[in-house]
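re: that chain from earlier
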Amino acid sequence: MSVRLEFDPGIPLTVSGEELAFEYGDGVFGPEPEMRRLDAIRASLRDPLCSGPDPVYAIAMDIGREVDRQDLERRMLLFGAVIYAHGALGEEPVRSQGHIHAIAPHSGWSPPEIFEIWNGTAIVYAQERAEDDPGRCIAISARPGERVVVPPGWAHCVINADRNTRMAFGAWCDRQYGFDYAQVRAHKGLAWFPIYNSVGGIEWVPNPAYHPAHLEQRGARAYPELELDGTVSLYCEFIQNPEAVMFVSEPQRAANVWPDFKP
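^ sequence. v structure.
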């Protein structure tokens, strides 16, 4: 049995009622999802020995309409879909381990990424660097239909903020995507750990492997500096105006924006 998403992604796409999987409608291509097992992310958790759902989340990279496939390949764009399990990883919410985007050979940039929440409540956590001094640290809460842009070079992870609901999102990525985990793992995680408090809310605990840093917490925002529409889904925005998301595969288009950009 398939389940409709809370926010319409703009293409015929549903989630499985039982498994961490997507179901593709007519005219839509997509792979079998790649499962992220708990053992694969333990090194970045506050409690690496914790128990929790396994698999933790599933990733389907490169989905879209068949009629768009060649254009997506030509533009070096890739649309991905991710679904998270409900539950908790010990005292932490279900989340990814955190990474930096590797340099894309075709552009010479660490690509940005645009997230769009489809189901549940997400927190996109991002920090400017994965060095001892993490720089700016921001935790952005986003609900279905809201977007978050992570700029080039920032370390980040995505968190399922509701332990009772599966969370799903889509994202525009560079087709030559790669995940660099080295610095995050060297610091045993990102600069802040999310944990559930006694009433089920999320609090943040600093990671002592980093220099002390301030954490800004806020909701999602619009991105007028990137001229994103925001009135249609991310995929529909590509259909209507492919140039609107080309800063993902060609970050140099927004080179003047990135130095002071705030996710």
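Helices lie at 38-41, 69-74, 182-186, 234-240.
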